[in-house]
């Protein structure tokens, strides 16, 4: 399985997704600040992977801290949490992982643990978050395979594969799960402007897996659906509101509208950690805006004229009414999502308490 992110004794190691597919380079982050920078600059991206890397970054920060005494360590730890929380605002998995690490730290302090014991506790917690994510993705693949017909032609947008998670993937986990069950699948991967996650990352993963893959521009989705060449759409998510409204890579909303027009089922695949019951609907999801250079340039080559303004939101929100189902590790939620998502989250909490 592709090693998206790994814990080492002296570093958090992640594949540099900005360099793919041309170069397979691994970044060794040796401080919490370096992990935060890697998240912010998209060395690593994808909501579940961001959560895992944040947890590992906090564990690394505590492990490498030079302070003495739990009180000083606590003050430093919570500053690290603030640093990590400021990296990318839309992906709720980031905040979920930070909260989980905070809870682990608080439990250790309450138990009277030493600095060394707190360090060991946070390393264990981060590794558990990593392992749970891989297991969740495999379960998403198992449930999602049920909605994939044999000989399916699947459209996906952005990259929700092993690279976006600790391994296996969410949307691509559904595709992998179907293929592992003997179903023949072919994938159309939107190139996903402006960062080209579909063309660079999704296609790279699927070709490595031997899965039939065709890269298309976003503008090709509509004619393909009109001509009956797409059987279903599966995408990932960065935050799912309580009513089912879903934030994903910008352009997803357009795909969902086209899918409804042509009666193509549109599915979202994401772990329960992406469901944010505290956010009532999509209007309350914060949308990250990124550097306009991502739009005006390809690497160091300028495409747009000097002086042109740029609007570069990284995400958009797909209304829940356009979503046929939300595939999680606990099963598939369907409308009404206010009820089904709450039930799935409650079931998860009950099963892990």
Protein architecture, described:
This protein is α/β, with parallel strands linked by helices and 353 residues long. The protein has two domains: 5-138, translation initiation factor eif-2b, domain 1 (Four Helix Bundle (Hemerythrin (Met), subunit A)); 140-352, Translation initiation factor eif-2b, domain 2 (Rossmann fold), CATH 3.40.50.10470. Helix content is 42%, strand content 17%. The protein has eleven helices and 16 strands. The strands form four sheets. Strands 6-5-4-7-10-15-16 form a seven-stranded mixed sheet. A four-stranded mixed sheet has the order 11-8-9-14, with helices on one face. The longest helix has 30 residues, at 115-144. It is globular. The two termini are 30 Å apart.
CATH-derived architecture of the largest domain: 3-Layer(aba) Sandwich
Q: What does the radius of gyration come to?
A: 20 Å
Q: What's the SSE pattern?
A: EEEHHHHHEHEHEHEEEHEEHEEEEEH
CATH topology of the largest domain: Rossmann fold
pLDDT averaged over residues: 95
Number of strands: 16
CATH superfamily heading of the largest domain:
Translation initiation factor eif-2b, domain 2
Q: Into how many domains do the coordinates divide?
A: 2
Q: Could you give a short account of the major beta sheet? A: 7 strands, mixed
Helix vs. strand class? alpha/beta
Total number of helical segments? 11
Unreliable stretches: 348-353
Oligomer: single chain
CATH class designation of the largest domain: Alpha Beta
Alpha-carbon distance between the termini?
A: 30 Å
Fraction of residues in helices? 40-55%
